[in-house]
């Protein structure tokens, strides 16, 4: 799983960590729970997208990561889309 990461996968993992950190900071600083939950969910999904090398790792652990990652990305997109639609 971690032995065949490409440069793009590493960038996606870094972006996932940054989204996680931003969501945590936004939760701590502004107490905006929905936006923070969306960012954290996007960070988890993006990190797992990078770890599984674009959801192409078909090992047993990779399949679990794919299911969790796709679910996290869908939830993150829906929650952040909802928050953005309410702010505009």
Structure write-up:
The chain contains three helices and no strands. It is an all-alpha fold and 88 residues long.
Produce the secondary structure layout.
Layout lengths: L6 H24 L2 H19 L8 H28 L1
Structural class: mainly alpha
Helix content: over 70%
Report the mean per-residue pLDDT as an integer.
94
Question: Main beta sheet, described?
Answer: none
The multimeric state of the shown protein is single chain
Helical segment count: 3
The rounded distance between the terminal residues' Cα atoms is 41 Å
Spans of 5+ residues with little confidence (pLDDT < 50)?
none
Number of strands: 0
Shape field: elongated
**Compute the gyration radius: what is it?**
14 Å
Order of helices and strands: HHH
The proportion of residues in beta strands is under 5%
Summarize it.
With 88 residues, this protein is mainly alpha-helical.
Which features does this protein show?
88 residues, mainly alpha
